[in-house]
Design a protein that fits this description.
461 residues; 4-stranded mixed beta sheet; 13 helices; 23 strands; globular; binds thymidine-5'-diphosphate; binds magnesium ion
């Protein structure tokens, strides 16, 4: 006889407990535990005992691997984030805020693949066929091998996939799909888990690559259980400022490649356009000859790009001066302000200070510290940094300027974008000189050890 035992699952993190609790012991979320019965069947037990005897471990070195079969989408920014194309039979989750362009990106991907003669199926539970066609018409002319389906029942979709035998399937969005066998609303934990399980089976057993669109919660996670992220092979986030036109595709999990990559796109009238050179894009329209604006070189994954850092220091009318940080870490900015007060004797306690990484990009690597410091000094003293000078470096609590990784790449990017002077950590300058990979007649490297040295540089006017 089946023995019934109660179990509780956390909707957010998938943590299991035997007792109901108000607070999940796994993730600390309140009111997230829901009941799910656990049934152990006699047949299951017998099967488990039989297969336990059969399991045969294999030697690692004896395992043969064939070359991965990857579908190249032709969207270079996307291929790179995926680790060199779509792996056959992989399940990819694409998360992002509403309206950011997930559907557009995936439709463009399907179009590119279908133009190469691959069969693609785009399933939408959110839009009618007409709506998808309207969007498609903005993107361009479609070939014969792309199919659309407006459906939310997973068994019907499964049937359609079996009939059509596509190489690539897009499920737009997991939150609208439902399984008739599960008694829960679409988007609920049990539905999402069940459907992802079915899609996983389809992908692995038939070698079809499936892209799942997932909505994002207020906290920025893909809505539904965290479990979803564990089940899929690759998780990509599509992000960007709704107000700015550019979008960033970021890998957060990838079983077939590195997660450090980003892809940069711009939303235009005819869909998403790749931005192969983000530097020019990020610093276009930068004010020249204004105090409070400096340029730094940041690195995301394997991409380096120039970015403008702005600061505004002005008299405060509050008891507690205001501090804000847009596009970077708030606590880090506070810390750098404290370093400036203590080490350079700059008086900021009676000033508001606003720091902004322009372009809407979020940069949290410490290499941006020196630029934040310079922008604050610039705004406070109304001195302007020479517009062909770039700076980067990590700043410590003593005001020391510490070396940062990939300094050569940053300097090379600065040279390429037309900068002639680079203020950088002294240790990095020595390393670049030693390696000899950079043509030093093209760029003037100024190595500094302490932030005191930038306050008196001649690059200010
Ligand atoms: P969409 O792909 O529907 O976003 P998501 O699926 O992530 O919710 O695209 C959203 C926005 O993009 C929409 O507000 C309109 C805009 N857009 C353009 O600016 N140009 C275009 O060519 C297309 C297709 C969309
Ligand atoms: Mg959409």
């Amino acid at each position: 006889m089946a023995k019934e035992k109660k179990l509780f699952y956390c909707r957010e993190c998938g943590n299991e407990t035997a007792k109901w609790q108000g607070k999940c012991p796994g993730c600390g979320g309140w009111n997230t535990l829901v009941e799910a019965p656990m049934v152990k069947t006699a047949a299951g037990k017998a099967k488990a005992a039989a297969s336990a005897a059969d399991a045969e471990p294999a030697r690692m070195k004896d395992i043969a691997i064939e070359a991965e079969n990857r579908l190249v989408t032709g969207i270079a920014e996307m291929d790179r984030v995926l680790g060199g194309g779509i792996v056959a039979g992989s399940l990819v989750l694409v998360g992002g805020d509403p309206g950011i362009g997930k559907s557009t990106l995936l439709l463009q991907m399907c179009k590119n693949l279908s133009d190469q003669g691959k069969k693609a199926l785009y399933v939408s539970g959110e839009e009618s066929l007409k709506q998808i066609k309207l969007r498609g018409d903005r993107i361009g002319e479609f070939s014969d091998s792309i199919y659309l389906l407006s459906e939310t029942g997973i068994s019907l979709i499964d049937g359609a996939i079996q009939k059509l035998q596509p190489e690539i399937v897009v499920i737009d969005s997991i939150q609208t799909m439902y399984d008739e066998n599960v008694d829960a609303a679409p988007g609920s934990m049990s539905q999402v888990r069940e459907i992802t399980g079915i899609l996983l089976r389809i992908a692995k057993s038939r070698g079809i690559s499936i892209f799942i669109v997932g909505h994002v919660t207020k906290e920025g996670n893909v809505a539904g259980p965290r479990m979803l992220e564990h089940m899929v092979d690759t998780v990509l986030y599509f992000e960007g400022d709704a107000a700015a036109a550019y979008r960033i595709l970021r890998g957060v999990k990838n079983r077939f490649g590195s997660t450090n990559e980003i892809g940069v796109f711009e939303m235009k009238g005819k869909g998403l356009v790749e931005v192969p050179n983000p530097s020019e894009y990020m610093i276009q329209g930068r004010p020249v000859g204004e105090a409070g604006s400096v340029v730094t070189c940041a690195i995301e994954g394997s991409r380096s790009f120039m970015i403008e850092v702005q600061a505004l220091v002005c008299h405060t009318y509050f008891n507690m001066p205001r501090r804000t940080a847009a596009g970077t870490d708030y606590n880090r900015v506070n810390l750098l302000i404290a370093v400036l007060e203590k080490r350079l004797g700059m008086r900021l306690s009676d000033s508001d200070a606003y720091v902004n990484v322009a372009g809407g990009m979020r940069i949290t690597e410490p290499a941006i510290d020196l630029a934040i410091i310079a922008a604050l000094i610039s705004s406070q003293s109304e001195k302007v940094m020479d517009d062909r000078t770039v700076l980067f470096g990590e700043v410590g609590l003593v005001g020391e300027v510490r070396a940062v990784p990939q300094c050569e790449k940053r300097v090379a990017e600065a040279m390429k974008t037309g900068y002639r002077t680079c203020i950088l950590p002294y240790a990095n300058k020595i390393a670049i000189k030693k390696s000899g990979n950079i043509d030093l007649s093209e760029i003037n490297l100024v190595g500094i050890r302490n932030i005191r040295e930038i306050a008196n540089r001649r690059e200010w006017s």
